[in-house]
């Protein structure tokens, strides 16, 4: 009897290999040496059984521990399959293979053998993307837009059937209408898509003159889009069924509209809140008054109390962005910037100097407090 190979060497992994690495190594080797891919190759068959036995041991924590301690001799009492490779027959190897690959074997393994995947009939149409730019106000309150985009759409001449009006598809003579072909490969009964009708089970005898049997035509279609109030830059809207038409009667894809919002020259957005800066004259800040400020709804009046400082923020309730969850609207925040006169006449200068002298430091408490801190630091 030939000397048995080390199981770790059979799978090409180290003795400290993780369970996932062992499984990956087995999957790769089992796919390579499977009898259905190597018809009549006895060496491949033996190699397939060899890697299956190695995996069967190393994937089981108890068997692997026994093997690591005592080698092949330690496994002789566990089961008949471990006295040597020759005793690990094809049935056991195929059961191991089936247990690892499961139902996906038909899609990932045999699909590759026959060069075709199952379920090719009625393919879903492709999804489409459209970038749409809207104004700040449209994003705030919502709007409706119409967009035109080229896409593969359902043929109006045949309504997607591919057959000329007044005619019908006929049963596929190759598969008898099932759309599938069966064949036997080793221990498996394999089902594959019929290559004559592409899995449809029927063929077109008289193609539609509009789409030449494709069931789809390329055209430019106009679509109406409803944009909800409160939408933000970068948000995506899904329009169900407005992607490209499906193939062979399959469902259409979806249209994804990616929203871009133009920046506003006055307003900045923070969620549902709106912020704007408004300059006010020096006199209004000192004496108080009423100013006119812009809002998303038009102009509004804002009262400025006497002694308003530059940078002070006032709130206009309910003048912000529409909340997308239906919770009303946010607020608008107005930051006032006190503007100091730049060019003074001699008379104006004299008046301000006189006022400044009369006011003294008591009218500027923040300035006095700051100067006191500076004086304390410099006198240390």
How is this structure best described in words?
- With 380 residues, the chain is an alpha+beta fold.
- The protein folds into 4 domains: 96 residues, Helix Hairpins; 134 residues, Heat shock protein DnaJ, cysteine-rich domain (Chaperone, DNAj Protein, Chain A, Ribbon); 72 residues, HSP40/DNAj peptide-binding domain (Sandwich), CATH 2.60.260.20; 33 residues, no CATH class.
- Helix content is 29%, strand content 26%.
- It has 10 helices and 15 strands.
- The strands form 6 sheets. Strands 10-11-15-14 form a 4-stranded mixed beta sheet.
- A hairpin with a 2-residue loop joins strand 10 and strand 11.
- It is elongated and about 110 Å long.
- About 8% of the residues have low confidence.
Q: What can be said about this structure in brief?
A:
The chain is of the alpha+beta class. The chain has 10 helices and 15 strands.
Kindly give the count of domains.
4
Strand order of the largest sheet: 10-11-15-14
Q: What is the oligomeric state here?
A: single chain
Largest sheet: 4 strands, mixed
Tell me the number of strands. 15
User: Helix- and strand-based class?
Assistant: alpha+beta
Assess the beta-strand content as a share of residues: 25-35%
At the first level of CATH, what is the class of the largest domain?
Mainly Beta
Query: Would you list the SSEs in sequence order as H and E?
Result: HHHHHHEHEEEEEEEEEEHEEEEHH
Contiguous low-pLDDT stretches (5 residues minimum) are 77-86, 103-121
Which percent bin holds the helix content? 25-40%
First-last Cα distance: 98 Å
CATH topology of the largest domain: Chaperone, DNAj Protein, Chain A
What is the annotated CATH architecture of the largest domain? Ribbon
Radius of gyration: 39 Å
């Amino acid at each position: 009897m030939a000397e048995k190979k080390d199981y770790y060497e059979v799978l090409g992994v180290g003795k400290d290999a993780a369970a996932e690495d062992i499984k990956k190594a087995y999957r790769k080797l089992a796919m390579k040496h499977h009898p259905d891919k190597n018809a009549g190759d006895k060496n491949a068959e033996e190699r397939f059984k060899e890697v299956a036995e190695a995996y069967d041991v190393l994937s089981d924590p108890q068997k692997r521990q026994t093997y690591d301690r005592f080698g092949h001799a330690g496994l002789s009492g566990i089961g008949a399959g471990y006295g040597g490779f020759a005793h690990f027959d094809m049935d056991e190897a195929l059961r191991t293979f089936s247990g690892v690959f499961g139902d996906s074997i038909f899609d990932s393994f045999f699909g590759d053998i026959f060069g075709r995947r199952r379920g090719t009939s009625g393919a879903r149409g492709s999804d489409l993307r459209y970038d749409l730019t809207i104004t700040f106000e449209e994003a705030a309150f919502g709007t409706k837009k119409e967009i035109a985009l080229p896409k593969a759409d359902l043929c109006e001449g045949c309504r997607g059937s591919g057959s000329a009006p007044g005619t019908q598809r006929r049963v596929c003579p190759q598969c008898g209408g099932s759309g599938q072909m069966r064949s036997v490969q080793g221990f498996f009964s394999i089902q594959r898509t019929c290559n004559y009708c592409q899995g449809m089970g029927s063929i077109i005898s008289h193609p539609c003159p509009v789409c030449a049997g494709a069931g789809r035509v390329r055209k430019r279609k106009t679509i109406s889009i409803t944009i909800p109030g409160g939408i933000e830059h970068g948000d995506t809207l899904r329009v169900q069924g407005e992607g490209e038409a499906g193939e062979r009667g399959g469902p259409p894809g979806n249209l994804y509209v990616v929203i871009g919002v133009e920046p506003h020259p006055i307003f900045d957005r923070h969620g549902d809140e709106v912020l704007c800066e408004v300059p006010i004259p020096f006199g209004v800040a000192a004496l108080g008054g009423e100013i006119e400020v812009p809002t998303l709804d038009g102009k509004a009046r804002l009262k400025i109390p006497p002694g308003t400082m530059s940078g002070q923020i006032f709130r206009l309730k309910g003048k912000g962005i529409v909340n997308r969850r239906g919770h009303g609207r946010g607020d608008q925040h107005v930051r006032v910037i006190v503007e100091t006169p730049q060019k003074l006449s001699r008379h104006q200068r004299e008046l301000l100097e006189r006022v400044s002298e009369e006011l003294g430091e008591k009218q500027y408490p923040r300035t006095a407090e700051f100067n006191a801190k500076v004086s304390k630091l410099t006198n240390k």
